[in-house]
Amino acid sequence: MKDYSDKELLILFRNPDHKNYAFSEIVRKYQERLYWHIRKMVVIHEDADDLLQNTFLKAWQALENFREESQLYTWLYRIATNEVLSFLKEKKRKYFLPLVDIEKELISGLEGNTYFDGDELELKLQKAILKLPDKQRIVFNMRYYDEMKYEEMAKILDTSVGALKASYHHAAKKIEYILKNN
Amino acid sequence: MQSKDKKATGIEQAGKNNPFSVPANYFESFPEKLNNRLQSKRPSPVPFPERAWQLIRPRLALAAVITGFALIGYLGLRTFTSTEQDLANSENIAMYIDFYQEDFSDQYFLSQLEEHDYYFEDPDPDYRLYGDDPDLYIEYLYQDEIAMDLLYAEF
After folding, report:
1. For a 10 Å CB count at each end of chain A, is N or C smaller?
2. Which of A42, B80, A15 is nearest to A55 (CA)?
3. Could you tell me which chain B residue has the CA closest to the CA of A147?
4. Which of A28, A113, A180 sits opposite B31 (nearest CB)?
C-alpha cells in the first residue's frame, strides 16, 4: 500500500473518481493518532470510537472546502479537539453534573475499564490528569504523551505559544502535587 | 532522601507509555465501519425523471402561486371595474333617455313607425276600425295606459 503525502491525498480527493479511495487513505493514515488524542480525554473506548467517527464524518463533509491554509493533520486534530470539548461540555450540561462529579465519573470509567492496561503508577497519573480542567488536560496530553511542539499545538488550539507553555507548566505542577499528596 | 521521594512520586516516574488499549482489530476494522456510516449519509443517486421533477417542482409551485395571485388580482379588478362600468352604462342610458325624451313626441313616433314600415299584428279584424288615422292609434295607446318604458324598449 502506497504512503501518500497529504498533498497527494487532497489532489486525489478532489478527483470524483478517487474521492472515496483518498478519504479511506486519510482515515487509515490518521485514525490512530486521532483516536489516542480523543481516548485520553474521554477515557471510555466506546465514547472515543463515536467521537472518532464524528470527527471523520465532519472532515468528509468539510474537506471539499479545505483551503490548505493549515496542514491536513492540524486541521483534523482541531476537529477532533472540538468534538471532545463539545462532548464533555454536553455531558456536563445534559446531566447537570458539577465538575467534581464529571471528574469522578471519568475516574470510575478508568478504574473499571477493560481496555486499560496500565500499572498502579500509570493509573495514579491518569487519575491526577483527570483532575485538571478540560483544556489544560488537552495541553498536557499533547505535550507529555504526543510530545507535540508548542508551535504545532498553537495552530491546533488557536492559542499563543506563551499561553500553552504556562498552561503546561501549571498542569505539570498540579499533577506533581496530586501525586505527592495522594 | 527528599529528592528520592520527589522522584518516586513524580510524573516522569510513571513514564510516557500509553496505558490504554483497544479491542482486537479495532483499527483494522474502523475504516470499513466508518465507510458504512458514510454510505448511509451519502445521498443515493436519484434517477433522471425523479431528479428533473425535484428540480422542476419548486419552480412549478412558485409559478402556480404567482398565477393564482395574478388570477385573483385580475378577477378582483374585473369585478370592481365592471361594476363601475355597469353603473356608468346605467347612468348613460338614463342620461340618454332624459336628453332625448322630448324627441319621443307623437309625431316622431309615428314617423319612425312609417319609416320602418312597422305595423301592429292584429288578430282581431275589428281592430282595423281605427283605419289609417294615426291619431286614433295614439289615442288607443293612451287609453290603454301602455307603459312608456315598454314602448321605449320595443322601439
Report:
1. N
2. A42
3. B16
4. A28
